[in-house]
């Protein structure tokens, strides 16, 4: 196993610890609020994340690239800090002045203070992403892993408390989301202070260089938002909120597989951007190896989740959510394709070819929006899931189109071999065994 995949496995462990918390959160929200409430939460979440992704100008990817290129340079760090601060202000203004009036009109049952407080967390993303990038540039993903586990843990605690108190309105839940994000935003600021990133040593040259790279790769983020978040926004208009709730549950069911692509999207670019490998282990070989291993892990998890979903969904979420199983199976296939796409996205970014990432996300965005516009609600939940699957397929196809730019001669090189499955299975078992306390392991 390559070091990049090993670090991704470490990140997947944190995301794996997050999964049970997400499952509990999904079960509690489904049973407390029903399909309609689940749909409202999904719509609000997608609006908040869309504002962040559109206006942070891909600061995480840019910071990973710039910090690996100018390691230890305070001018680069301070320039990125100025960027993050400006993005935070822009996001807050957009959320409060533009997005709030629309959401207040669309969901009149939510009060003024609830919506304004919930939207505040959109502005926490730039500083969090900068802190994650600084940590990654120092060879550690612990801060990111802590965030991925800590947020759902706090949400589970708040939901459990609301359940015990028999509070069934959405307002307290939204307050809890905002409070959890605020706690980790403060932690990110403290981390940046300890790393001495705060300062006034920025230069316009470094800032312009960062913005140049960021704007080129940000096209991929904009298209990525269009292929996922804007698609959900469009669905919230074309289909009833209850159906959006079912789709949200289907996405939760496929989340164990999306763990792979989520971990790789964080770790691949910084791992490939760091040029600390020998000549015999060039970037092309590393891309092939990481692609095979990522696809192998996604396939193993995908098959396991597909089998379990048929019995687990009605049992955990309730019988009325059994309609979400078939769409979840289709989303699992898309998540497997996205795992491969995540490695290639990171590879193109590390190679200084961010426009390829933009092209792939644009293809995915056009595909999903056209499919949703044509399909709408006419083919039910399965038709909506098919739109997302088509989006994943078009994204991967676009990334495979120019593999020679990465030194990979053919897409066939990325197909896992039998040896990859053996290594991945052994690594998963070793990782799971290490997570068992020593006393328990020795007793068994």
Give a description of the structure.
By secondary structure, the protein is mostly helical. It has one domain. It is 81% helix and 0% strand. It has 17 helices and no strands. The chain has helices spanning 3-55, 59-69, 74-106, 112-120, 125-137, 142-164, 170-194, 204-227, 229-238, 241-253, 255-273, 283-317, 325-350, 354-375, 380-400, 418-434, 438-443. Helix 1 crosses helix 3 and helix 13 runs parallel beside helix 15 (380-400). Mean pLDDT is 77; it is low at 1-5, 275-281 and 433-444.
Write a brief caption for the model.
The protein has 444 residues and is an all-alpha fold. The chain contains 17 helices and no strands.
Q: Indicate the structural class.
A: mainly alpha
Question: How many domain units?
Answer: 1
**What is the 3D shape?**
globular
Q: State the separation between the terminal residues, measured CA to CA.
A: 28 Å
Number of strands: 0
Round the mean pLDDT to the nearest integer and report it: 77
Helix content: over 70%
Element-by-element helix/strand order: HHHHHHHHHHHHHHHHH
The biggest beta sheet is recorded as:
none
- β-strand percent reads under 5%
Radius of gyration over alpha carbons?
Answer: 21 Å
The number of helical segments is 17
Low-pLDDT stretches are: 1-5, 275-281, 433-444
List the SSEs and their pairings:
Blueprint: H1 3-55, H2 59-69, H3 74-106, H4 112-120, H5 125-137, H6 142-164, H7 170-194, H8 204-227, H9 229-238, H10 241-253, H11 255-273, H12 283-317, H13 325-350, H14 354-375, H15 380-400, H16 418-434, H17 438-443
Helix pairs in contact: 1-3, 1-6, 1-9, 1-10, 1-11, 1-12, 2-3, 2-5, 2-8, 3-4, 3-5, 3-8, 4-7, 5-7, 6-7, 8-14, 9-14, 10-13, 11-12, 11-13, 12-13, 12-16, 13-14, 13-15, 14-15
